[in-house]
Every structure is written in structure tokens, then in C-alpha cells.
Design brief:
Helix content: 55-70%
Protein name: Replication factor C subunit 4
CATH topology of the largest domain: Rossmann fold
Strand content: 5-15%
Number of strands: 5
Pfam families: AAA, Rep_fac_C
Bound molecules: adenosine-5'-triphosphate, magnesium ion
Largest sheet: 5 strands, parallel
CATH architecture of the largest domain: 3-Layer(aba) Sandwich
CATH class of the largest domain: Alpha Beta
Keywords: ATP-binding, DNA replication, Nucleotide-binding, Nucleus
Order of helices and strands: HHHHEHHEHEHEHEHHHHHHHHH
GO cellular component, one term: Elg1 RFC-like complex
Structural class: alpha/beta
Strand order of the largest sheet: 2-3-4-1-5
Subcellular location: Nucleus
Length: 363
Amino acid sequence: MTTSPTTTATAAGASSATAASSKAATTTTTTTDAAAATSYELPWVEKYRPQRLDDVVGNRATIERLKAIQHDGNCPHLLISGLPGIGKTTSVHCLAHALLGDAYREGVLELNASDERGIDVVRNKIKTFAQKKVSLPPGRHKIIILDEADSMTPGAQQALRRTMEIYSSTTRFAFACNQSSKIIEPIQSRCAILRFAKVRDEEILKRLLEICEMEGVEYNDEGLAAIIFTTEGDMRQAINNLQSTYTGLGFVNQENVFKVCDQPHPHLVRAILESCRAADIDAAMDRLDEIWSKGYSAVDIVTTLFRVAKTLDSLSEAVKLDFIREIGWTHIKVLEGVSTNVQLGGLLARLCRLNMNAKLFEL
Ligand SMILES: Nc1ncnc2c1ncn2[C@@H]1O[C@H](COP(=O)(O)OP(=O)(O)OP(=O)(O)O)[C@@H](O)[C@H]1O
Ligand SMILES: [Mg+2]
């Protein structure tokens, strides 16, 4: 996907403004100075928040549906669900901007988890807004955005049912949430449901490269790959990690990324898995102890084991599947509360066993 001219223009405008202000402040720019100069500006996640649906990366099919609504102008009630940091709130605001234009300020009421959203608010604030007269472009409706709607109490959600119907000639509701199951059925049935999936790695990479270029970030390919490894489809975290690494350490390479993101280094984790493949339990345990002594939790280690195992080419397909199954079982046990070193040691023993002659274990 290519960046649309608007994003490039806005972002380029923003970065040239930054460049101008930092030039005024300092005349000599070494890498550290450059990093220091950027440390007080807007977080990049906000600076590069897409302004138009075309600028939202990934989830093409869902974005196309939103664009169809934008062209049609008649917005149904919407429920957008998906994991954190993948563009839900951004997309709802882009749609509202596109539909209402200059009337956006007057015509949109946003309530998120930081606002009080109990039954009283639904009764008063939402109803008052729904009754308010606002001049909008012809054929358009006021929009009430209920962000992080899964944190609304069921009582408050119940109170919305009739409100949504009574004011539907003038007002549309857009819900955004992480878990659609926490939205009561009657509201789900009143909405067009859109699901956002994780952003794909290559799409995140493309966006990171654009930001690197606009911000003049110094990086190498392994550094960006490490950022993508640590974020697992969460665009917000990818951009935040890029900014933290660059502003903190001045160069985005693998070493710096893992220092800043503080996750078990995949090289060490890979070494554990390689030792298990060679059925060398002593070496595997030594490496596990090394990671454990750095203070990582069992969840950190087990999730990194999974991510590395998934991409470990030295394992045959069958062994890889066995490894992933064992890691999955251990993940369940860790989440159930048994998150000790012994639990992880047990996992490594089972992984080693998979690579040993089964006859050795016959009684
Ligand atoms: N698909 C995307 N394309 C471009 N930028 C994105 C995308 N998703 C997230 N971002 C970046 O991450 C920031 C946060 O995105 P957004 O607020 O839309 O996340 P969200 O899906 O609403 O997450 P949450 O569930 O935590 O509310 C945006 O400001 C933007 O910089
Ligand atoms: Mg959001």
C-alpha cells in the first residue's frame, strides 16, 4: 500500500516544523542531539494518527466497507471490535470526519472509558446530545462514538437499547471495543459488526519505513524486524517501540530494540529450542536459568518460546507442531497460576523427549 498524499503532506509538514524548531534550538546535530531534540515532541502514534480512511493500514476489506458507508452517507449503527492498537478508534474518527466535515465538532459526541458512562450518563448526556439540533450536511446524522464500549456496565448498555431506536432518525452510534462478547446481544443485533484483525507484519513494516523516513530515524533491517517481532500485529506498539528505541538509544538495531522493549532475547530462546532439538537437557536448562535470572516472568518466556518455535526453520514441520503443542499446554498452566521455573523445566524436558528414541521410555 502506498501512503496517501494527505498523510505524507501532514506528516512531512509536522516533521519539517519539528526540524525547523530543533534547528533554531541547536546548531550542531550529532545523533544523540537529534534524538534528544525529538524527545519533547508529540508521541509518534498521535503525530501519525491517520486522518482519512485511506491512510489506515491493513484490514483492507473492513476499511472498504467503511469507505462504502462514507460514500453512501447513510451510516448504520456500527460495532467495531478487535485487539488493541490496530486502528479501531482511528477508523471511527476518520469516518466521522469524512461524513460530517466541518460539522464534526458539533455533530460528534465521544465518550470513552475515561468518562463516566453509567446509566445516568446514558439517560442525560447521550439523550441531551441526541435531542440537540445541529446543522449537518444534508442526509447526514449526528454520531455518538462510544469507545472502549466493552467497559460499559451491562446496565448502561441496556439503557441504550431504546435510546438507539428512538433517536435513530437523527443519531447514529459507533461502538469500538476489544471483546465484542462483552457487548450485550440486543446492541449487537442493532449494529453492523466490523471485525478488525491484527495488522500484518509487512504492513507494519511499510508504515515503520515511512515513519523512519519522515523522522530521519537511523535503523538497520534487523532492528525493524525485531520491532515487528516484539509487537505481534499491534501497530501502536510498533510505532511506540520505534520511537522509544530511537529517542533512547539513537539507532534502531536488534540489540537496542530488545534493550528497550525488555523481552527475552530471541537468540537465547532459539538456543534453548536448539538444545531441546538436540535432546541436550543440561544445555537447555542452563540457558533457561540464564534468562530466568534476568528476571523475566514465565509468561514472557513461554510466549517468546512460542513465537520463536513458530519460525524456527531447523525444525521439521512435524516436530514444530509437537513443540508448539507442548508450549501451548505449558502456556495454559502458566496462566492458571503455576508460573515457576520448574514448570518451564518440565516443558524443556518434554521437548527433549520428543527428540529422543521413544524406546528409551518403554517400561
Ligand atoms: N491500521 C493502522 N494504520 C495506521 N496507524 C495505526 C493503525 N492502527 C493503529 N495505528 C496507530 O496506533 C495509534 C492507535 O490506534 P487506535 O487508537 O486506532 O487503536 P485502537 O484499535 O482503537 O486500540 P484500543 O483497542 O487500545 O483502543 C494511532 O494513533 C496510529 O498512530
Ligand atoms: Mg481505541
